[in-house]
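Model it.
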Amino acid sequence: MKIGELANATAVPAETIRYYEKIGLLPEPDRDNSGYRSYRPGHLERLLFIKRCRNLDMAQDEIRELIRLAENPEADCSEVDALLARHLTHVRERLKELSSLEETLVQLQEACSDSRTVRECGILGGLSSELETPKPEDRDNHVPGTHGPGQH
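Modeled.
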């Protein structure tokens, strides 16, 4: 199938498919005589796997590792379990961060009352001053591939 057909079958944009090829998550397809990409059923299966992993907020390196592990179906699955455990820890940390963010936004919204001018707006005033919320750690939201001890 051509890239447009693969995109339609998976609801993944063609430019994303090309990107996954470029970074090695999706194997390069064959090319037909006209130079168009020609995808096989294995590409469809891999792309759906990648999409499911992305829907679980997995990073590219995590997906790459899962693909590597899946290529050895007789191996012990403890590495897969460990990867998922690290990802789950990351998700739980993000939930805490989002809960804190929600509390901050609720506080800001409560600072607003009816019939005020923009100059008197409690939300804008709160955003202009130091809020009493923990500062986010100096790290990325999601470091690809690992969430183990001493690593984010």
